[in-house]
Every structure is written in structure tokens, then in C-alpha cells.
Amino acid sequence: xxxxxxxxxxxxxxxxxxxxxxxxxxxxxLPLLKRVRQPYPAEAAPIxxxxxxxxxxGFGIDLGPAFTHITAGQLERWxxxxxxxxxxxxxxxxxxxxxxxxxxxxxRGDGLDAIVIQAQGWASALVLAPDRLREILxxxxxxxxxxxxxxxxxxxxxxxxxxxxxxWHAFAEDHPDELDIQPLRWTGSTVAALQEEVTGRxx
Length: 203
Known about the structure:
Layout: H1 3-14, H2 22-25, E1 29-33, E2 49-51, E3 55-62, E4 67-69, H3 72-78, H4 82-99, E5 103-109, E6 112-118, H5 130-137, E7 142-148, E8 151-155, H6 161-172, E9 184-186, E10 191-193
Antiparallel strand pairs: 1-3, 2-3, 3-4, 5-6, 6-8, 7-8, 7-9, 9-10
């Protein structure tokens, strides 16, 4: 890791201590979808809540160059519940989409017609903001992949399953940020689960 970036990260972490209150932290909280690998001891494990249609969502404090995960102990210390932190995080996400618009790029070739949405650490969380997602994807149904936190991939509904699997692995294979989220369906107005026979076959 670049030494200057490491110094930035360490300095940012020093600003988040045991004396911080919810009021000082709340504006920096964003939703983070659950990763496949959770390399944390029990006392430092991130909290998660299941959001329809079965999306496991955790929360991070945005420190600029990095996120620090929110734990159950922090919620207890701040005196807030999961409903509060979820609502705050989603509101902050919506504001972030406006202040720092995600990068939206087409990916085409060999019969592929994909849209890749990227943002620093939170693009995958766009599945929690369907009103803002519609501004990007429009009203046509699509398949959505959230392979890593920095990317949301939109695919045609008639894409071959094998290509879906290949794309997932192209983004997520051996990546520490691979997400534990099954493929989803964009209905044109909201995010829904794929049919049972399709889910469970990617990662």
C-alpha cells in the first residue's frame, strides 16, 4: 500500500474513538453490503440486517480513504437501534449519489450488453435506493449483480446463466470485497429476488 495513503487511513481512524457520539457520526454512515469473508473477531464483527428481498446490509463510517464497520457495541453505546442506523445510512446514500454521482459505463462485446456502475465503496448499495437506481437504469427489467462493493452490474434479463457466472468471477474472484449477495432483478421500479432456480448458483 502507498505510504501516503496508509498515513491518511491511520489518521482517519484516529478521529473515530470510543467517545464519539451518534450525532457526530451519523452524517458519515453509509450502508455496506455483506462480504463473503468476514475476518473479524467476535467483539469487532460488523452488524448486519436483512433488507427485502433478502439483502444482508451492514454499515460503515466513511473516513474518506477507508470505512470502519459499525458493531453491536457501538450501537449500544450510542443508544440507537438497527432501524435508526438503516434509515440514516440509506438517507446518506441518497445524498451521496447526488453529491458524488457514480460512474456509469456500458460494457459491450461478444453479445454482452452490460452497464457497470462504480463508486468508491458503495456502488453495490444502490440496490437499496431504487428511486435513484431508476434514474440510471430506466424502466426496462434487468438482472443485477453486486460482486464487490465498488460495482453494480446491470445485465439483460435474457442473458445466459453461464455468462452471469463468468462476469461475477471476473469482478469478484479472489477479491477481499466479494459480496455475499445473490443476483437480483430490477423490475423497472424496484429490486426483487430472482427465481429460486437461478439464485444460489453464482458464488
